[in-house]
Amino acid sequence: MEPVTDQAFAAALYSDGDAGLDTGASLLAADPTADAELFRRGEEFVRRAWERGWQPADVIRLVRRELDEHAAGLAAGLIGSETARYERLPPRWRSQLDALPDAPPRNRPDRFSYAGAVLGLYRLLLRLPAVEPVGPPPGAGPHGLRLPPAHDEPRMLTRIRALLAKAEATGFPEEAEALTTKAQELMARHSIDEALLAARTHSKEAPGACRIGVDAPYETAKAILLDAVAAANRCRAVWNSDLGFSTVVGFEPDLDAVELLYTSLLVQGTAAMTRAEAGQRAGGRKRTKTFRQSFLMAYAQRLGSRLAADTARVTAEAETGAEGGSAAGPAGSGSPGLLPVLAARDMAVTDTAERMFPETTTTRVRGATDLDGWTHGTDAADRARMGGSGPELRGGRGKR
Fold it and tell me: If we measure between CA atoms, which residue out of 63, 85, 77, 62 comes closest to residue 107?
């Protein structure tokens, strides 16, 4: 006789209706001996996700988006159990695992409801498309992209993280502006130092990649903001609107900087938008989705040009120092010039991004329609000390 789990899967996982889920849940609820096999099969689905290029944070993000927080907890339990099998994990995985939500107790509130939720999750996991890998799966050596081993956070990134945390916490716009500007300057200098060190030591380091969630609402504006932050930090971002993330390609120190700065600027922008809306309501005017969309679009666009200007200024200062013998080593020492080094790294990042995403489309975004929202968003960007490349995005789709 066919095992109960197989019967339940045949009914629930290969159909789209709720009737199949109910049938499968009924079969599982009636047979407690199937519990261990049900969990084991879930671990197998998670392992297949790794083989298709997904990482823990990607899975949790999509489950939250398509199902709910309870399903995200179920997925977290499977992920935690499956990844415990490995002695070593790929870079960035440990922090993702540390951020997993708590797994709910099994068979609660009752066996039928629990089984139905599990089967709904498995149906989603089974249909995950293949996506461009941003590192090796657990249990395998690096392939494709060449990524560095996991390491402790550099002291410079710790300083940058502290500056951005203060910028998010302060209630004074001028202080937030100064702190965020200082953070971007440190990021740019750190990137330059790493590039020169790699050139002098003839490092074989190649660009890597990471995925950053771009969640609704207003995901277009958020993707533009991430694209601006990536470009200012010598990276390339490709947005997958269907799956709710952007893949950022760049050298490891720059990827860390992009993730830190984007997260902080999103927090600062959301707080500024909330304050602006409160002021509008106090004046007796209602504000809608168009106000918030226009606000964030203006915020993202304005920040792009300011970030780029900050990076250009720091680079020019470093090049001047290099010519005098203070940035790239003593004059006449044979140390590489800064601009050729940066150009070579930019080309390496572009080549890697084009290999990963040979087919991309550039989407022109509709203009903002709320003048007040645009004005407030521009002002908030000025206070945050950041501005936008034009409202265009490069998008890529996961492999199907």
Answer: 77
CB 390 within 8 A of CB 363: no
Is 0.90 topped by the overall pTM? no
- Going by C-alpha positions, the residue among 86, 77, 70, 68 that lies closest to residue 45 is 77
> Tokens at residue 240, please?
């997958």
Other CB atoms within 10 Å distance of the CB of residue 324: 11
106 or 389, higher pLDDT: 106
> Is 71 within 8 Å of 121 (Cβ atoms)?
yes
Contacts of residue 296, defined as CB under 8 A and 6 or more positions apart, other chains included, come to: 218, 221, 222, 225, 269, 273, 377
Residue 172: other Cβ atoms inside 10 A: 10
Show Cβ contacts of residue 168 under 8 Å, excluding neighbours closer than 6 positions: 176, 264, 267, 268, 271
* CA–CA dist 260, 187 (Å, integer): 10
The strand pairing partners of 213, in sequence order, are 245
Q: How far apart are CA 23 and CA 103, in angstroms?
A: 25
Task: Rounding to the nearest 10 degrees, give the CA dihedral for residues 225, 231, 236, 240.
Answer: 10
Helix axes 338-356, 289-324, angle to 10 degrees: 140
Closest CA to 66 of 281, 216, 218, 226: 216
- Among the residues of the chain, which ranges form H helices? 4-12, 18-29, 35-51, 56-66, 69-83, 93-98, 111-126, 155-169, 173-200, 219-232, 252-282, 289-324, 338-356, 371-384
Q: Crossing angle of helices 56-66/69-83, nearest 10°?
A: 160
CB neighbours of residue 67 within 10 Å = 17
Using one digit for the tens of pLDDT, what is the confidence trace for 289-348? 778 888 888 888 888 888 888 888 888 888 876 555 544 444 334 445 788 888 999 999
Q: Which helix (H) or strand (E) holds 247?
A: strand 245-250
Q: pLDDT tens digits, residue range 182-224?
A: 887 788 888 888 888 888 888 888 999 999 999 888 898 899 9
Q: What is the C-alpha separation between 84 and 100, in angstroms, rounded?
A: 14
